[in-house]
Structure formats: structure tokens, C-alpha cells
Specification:
mainly beta, Nuclear Transport Factor 2, Chain: A, six-stranded mixed sheet, globular
Length: 116
Amino acid sequence: MSCCDQSTARVPSTDVSRRSVLKGAAVVASVLPGADPAVALGPAQASALLTDFLAPAQEVETRVLAAREVGPGRGYVELQRRYRVAGTQNVRVQVLLLGYRLDSGGWSLVEFRVVR
């Protein structure tokens, strides 16, 4: 399976799940609001950081905007996330970029970035 085939990207259709996003991840560099962008994290730390990032929100919709292999063994998936902050009815939109690398075990997530 390609990391970057839009029809098979490992992203749930209506929920950004940290388990699905981090499946197979060895080390994740994250660029989240309030997180140190220079630090690569192991799967447990990345999962905790992502849980804290997603916890105050109710997911409305997650769409795959693009999925491409950008070089030998490198690919990315661009997502549009629509969510509500807990306790409100306002829907906010974020664009997320997931970077993948091909290794002996298949495609692994190596970067999770909030781009807007």
C-alpha cells in the first residue's frame, strides 16, 4: 500500500484518531501550537502530545486534500480538519500535513504539522 494513495490513506473519514495517525510511527517531529518544533518525539510522547492537542475538540469532518509521494521513500498526506471547540457551536478549520517515510516495515509517520 502506498502512503500517498488518496483512496487508501490511513485517515478515518470523520475522526482524526491518534492511533490511526501514529500507526507504525517510530519518531515523530511535531509542529503544533505551543510545542517545541525542534524536538523529535517517540511514539508514546507523540501520542500524548497529540491527545492533548485534540482533546478540547469535537471532530466534525476530516478530508484528505492531497496525498503524494514526493521522492524515493518520502510522501505526505494533507488533511483538512473541521472541529468544534468543546462547549461551543463554532466550527473551526485546520490544515494538517502528515509526512511519511518508507522503511523496512512500510510507511511510517515522521512528521505531524499544523500548517493553518
